[in-house]
Every structure is written in C-alpha cells, then in structure tokens.
Amino acid sequence: MNEDLRICFIGDSFVQGIGDPAYRGWVGRVLAATGPGITAFNLGIRRNTSADVLRRCWREVEPRILPDTDNRLVLSFGSNDSVVENGNVRVDRTQCLDNLATLLTESRDRAIHPLVIGPPPVIDAGKEHLRRTADLADDMADLCDSREVPFVATTRQLAEDLVWTREAAAGDGAHPGSGGYQRLAELILAGQWHSWIARPTP
Q: Which of 99, 141, 195, 199 is positioned for an S-S bond with 54, CB 3.0–4.6 A?
C-alpha cells in the first residue's frame, strides 16, 4: 500500500453511517481494519441519489486530493434512486447506470482508482424496492466488470442478514445500528477491498 494514500468515500446515508450510535458506520470500521497510512474523507449525504453524487462529486473530491499522491474514490449509491416518489422512481435504472459510468470515466481521467459498493437494502421499503435495488446492483456489477473496476455486492446479502434486518427494523426502517454496519464492513473487507488497496495507481 502506498504510504501517501487518500480515499474519498462519497454516496448516501449508508456511507454517512446514519443510525450507528458509535458514529463509525461501515466506513470507519473498514478503515480501522485496514490500518494506518490512510487519509480518508467521508462525503456521504442522506437521501443522495446517483444524480446528486454526480453533481457534487468533483467539487468535493478535488480539494481533498493531491498530485503525485495515490488518490482513490469509493462510490456507493442506488438505494435512494430506487425509491418511488409521486408515482415514479427518483432516478431510473438507465440513468443511474449512466451516472455511474460517467463517474468511473471521470475517475480514470483523473488517474483516481475507483471502487464501487453496491446499494444496501432498505428494509421497510418493501419487496418491490428490494427487487429494483437488487436488479440495479446486478447491472452496476456488470458495468464495473466491463470497466475492470472492483464491485462489492451488498443488496441481497444484507436483505438476508438477521443483524442488519433486525437493527434496521428497530430503528428508522432503513439504517442499522453498530452490528449491521459491522456486517456491511465485513462484506466489503471480504470482497475486493484489500486487493484494491494493494493495487498501485497506474
């Protein structure tokens, strides 16, 4: 791992860690398990969709990166895109994928290594929301695979995880507590996190 490593985490409330009484979320837990030498920035905002992330990404990321430094970007969104408001999903699947593709292209143009974390499930949003989110996650995985970008699937795994579902149901219906975020962190750490961290910037 490069000793001068900067990682921006950008996305929604799951990135922000809403609901965690320890205020660590999955981002803090993944970083704690990774070790020292990382300068990290949590840029999660509640209710953000892929369109919101695309709109603000570089305005917020560029002041936090440095030239001649190993700069990384972790993207995670999609759960809010799949929410129905006023009879329509907030961001349709095609547009969400286009937004992700744009962010991946713009990351590479800036010599920034991206990593994508799939959208976690919103437990109280119902079966149709879960279906839409899971289908979107599958398409995101295919897009990342075509770009040789690591992707960590979370949607179905967490929808079947009793710790995540119980904590979310006991809270606001969407966000878990410490145990649920620990489960999400474990999925990420067991996925492509360590190989991504170890991979040098081209």
A: 99
Q: What's residue 202's pLDDT?
A: 55
**Structural domain span for residue 133:** 5-198
Q: Tokens for 12, please give them.
A: 């929604």
- Domains: count for the chain: 1
* Backbone torsion region of residue 15, taken as left when φ is above 0, otherwise alpha when ψ lies between -120 and 50, otherwise beta: alpha
Q: What is the pLDDT of residues 126-165, one digit of tens each?
A: 999 999 999 999 999 999 999 999 999 999 999 999 999 9
Q: CATH code at 156?
A: 3.40.50.1110
Q: Is the CB of residue 15 less than 8 Å from the CB of residue 80?
A: no
